[in-house]
Amino acid sequence: MAKDNGRIYFEHLDVIRFFAAFMILILHAYEAWVGWYGELGILTNGTYEDLTFFGKLGDRFIRNMGMGVDIFFLLSGFLITYILIEEKKRYSKIAIKKFIIRRTLRIWPLYFILVAAAPFLVSWLNTSPTPNYIPNILFINNFEGIKTQQWTYPFAHFWSICIEEHFYLVWPFIIAFIPNKRLIPTFIFIIALSISFRIYTSYTMQYPWYTLYLHTLSRIDVLVIGAIGAYFYSEKPFKIKLNRMVRYILLVLLVVSLSIEPVELWNSHFLAGFKKFFYIGIISVLLLDYNFNPNFMHILPRKSIFHYLGKVSYGIYMYSNIIVLIVIKKFMWTFESNNIWFFIFLNVSLSIIIPIISYELLEKHILKLNKRFRVIKTDR
Predict the structure, then answer these.
(1) What is the sign, positive or negative, of the torsion defined by CA atoms of 214, 215, 218, 219?
(2) Cβ atoms of residues 218 and 194 within 8 Å
(3) What pairs with residue 9 in β-bridges?
(4) pTM of the entire structure?
(5) Among 38-42, 169-173, 193-197, 348-352, whose mean pLDDT is lowest?
(6) Distance of alpha carbon 334 from alpha carbon 197, whole angstroms
(7) What sections of the chain are H helices per DSSP?
């Protein structure tokens, strides 16, 4: 972490943000392709229907890339909590109003531009069902998804932004008004509440999947796990010295497990409550190793393209799931193409170029306003 002149900056987090966003980009593109065109030839030995043994592994691994959202949650929980705790330690209070303004300036402009563009997109692409705009305006898209039990274009992926907004709404009050020595018991209580909610939901609902996947209380524990790391790092900055062999073993274990089992398969009450922690635990250790291991060989320069794309990752996440249907209906169908490489090239290039343009022309300038409301110098 760079902490010069009081500035807080964890330089490697930007790289992780980009790869988390890229995971979700690939997931959405893959699911769209399979939905419209069928299985990939490379995964079916050319039959385009039945997955081979290794095809099943590849299919499952890609479908589990939704874990990218959990990585975002971990990073948000860590960084937001660390900044708030540091502000509280330095000034004995938290400027909650300024915090909310900062988060609003970061999230709302792009979010509401896409909400405003939605009627045009729905008409242009002739999608159905017609989305309900009010839940998205009010940041309760995730609860709308639970109610309808369906994904609605172009708002299908807005649920995670809504959960983040719910977190931002309550978290500064928790950090501000609960004594630091009681924060860890509070964090543990929230995690236990989240686990209890998932177990209760699995017991009481006949079809609990959407609630387990989308409900704020069901997902907030990952944000709080990130917050626990922030608390201990604020108390005493730590270094992780993970053995290289252990790192490789954990990485292989993660890849193998993500290739075998659906992360969101909760076919028992125990799994509904605790299954996610197997994956989150491994990912958390690997992230700590990547960020806080002084012996980790970082091959990327400090200002690499991946660091820059990490700053653009919010746009990559927001635009990519919207772009994928445009590519299918306005490019693939127009050119009567079913070339997977053409599809991948268009999706990846547009899902990076458009967010970069958006960041440079819009978000970057709004973030300059954000600086006026910063109590501590930070890139957030």
Answers:
(1) positive
(2) yes
(3) 2
(4) 0.95
(5) 38-42
(6) 47
(7) 13-37, 41-44, 53-63, 67-91, 96-125, 133-137, 141-148, 159-177, 183-204, 209-214, 216-235, 244-260, 269-274, 276-292, 305-311, 313-327, 340-358, 364-370
